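Weekly structure sync, notes
Attendees: PL, DS, HV (note-taker this week)

Item 1: Methyltransferase-like protein 22
DS walked through the input record. Source organism listed as Monodon monoceros. Sequence as pasted into the shared doc:
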Amino acid sequence: MVDGEPRPWLPSPSPAMDEITFKSDTVLSDVHLHTPNQRHLMVRLSGVGQPVFLSQFKLLWNQASQTDSGAEGGNHRAHHAEVTSPARRSCSSEGASLQAGADATSQEGMAAQLDEDGDLDVVRRPRAASPSKPSGPPRDKVHPMILTQEEDDVLGDEARESGPYDVIKIEHTMATPLEDVGKQVWRGALFLADYILSQRDLFQGRTVLELGAGTGLASILAATVAQTVYCTDVGADLLAMCQRNIALNSHLTAAGGGVIKVKELDWLKDDLCTDPEVPFSWSEEDISDLYGHTTILLAAEVFYDDDLTDALFKTLSRLAHRLKNASTAILSVEKRLNFTLRHLEVTCEAYDHFRSCLRRLEGLTGGRLRFAVEPVDASFPQLLVYERIQQLELWKVFVEPVTEPIVSADTAS
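Item 1 (cont.): predicted structure, written out as tokens:
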């Protein structure tokens, strides 16, 4: 107040350092961020009006050089260069030569355009002298492209050269709100898929349950060797996307006879939905098969929120107690580094909470099940083309029944 008058020009108090100063509710996966623009083909709108894109991920399972691929040092870009086709290498060399020639020409032109004082003399062509119709090819115009769902060849020449069995096609969205991140493809899912394809004997003929399957990529590749895969998540729109991706890649699973069943499984609910009126609900036959035959559980890139992480581990424990056989859970996580104002340093809070949940699970005693946790050596070969970084980790949780010690009559007395 000045002489009893308000002073609206004074700035408002600044927020404290530990308070949120900005918010962003849009998340974009690094997989889509680094994918070339020509791979992002919009094919339709989802049931909730989100643009749906179709991307291809090249499979390298026929490359003999994959056997010596590992995660030592995380240098997988050099490995990708080894398996690049000769035609592509030729194009790359030619392109490099042309670029070098263009650079040399450009440097000569720069030298010729300096005036006597050494300043750059830019000569502009008069607008009237410009031809109304350029002699060269017209410049490409950038505009959205919507392709029909019935279009078979939407991935260009590379897909035709690779063949249908060397590419997995995935429909997904991009830049979603946090609650819809399952509609994107994440590196952890590709990392888990690498492990599945490199450990085919482990999955051969098994019944597999994936929790938080998202777009269904890992479930689809698991079904190339497993007998039955339950691909589960929540949300009718997301589960419909899974169903669509399964249909797009049916040729990959047909040879092995694997069956994928898309079902709703909510970690925040104790029981499976059996209401036949609800899409993707469970039948009594499916529930009996799930509990009677499942031996492998999968989860990838679902450890980004502490509450959801707690719910997942609670679900794992609940399912393990209902399964009739000993089981193994394989968990894929990316250790994401973030600078926080609260700590004023780089931290991995979501990852740290995930590790604490593993320790608590392993420390459970007094029940009829024993949980053993161990990390997976990341030296298994890379069989999908993506950026495989050192922050990707796999963890195994072994679930076995606790055997009661046999007490003899003499010991008991």
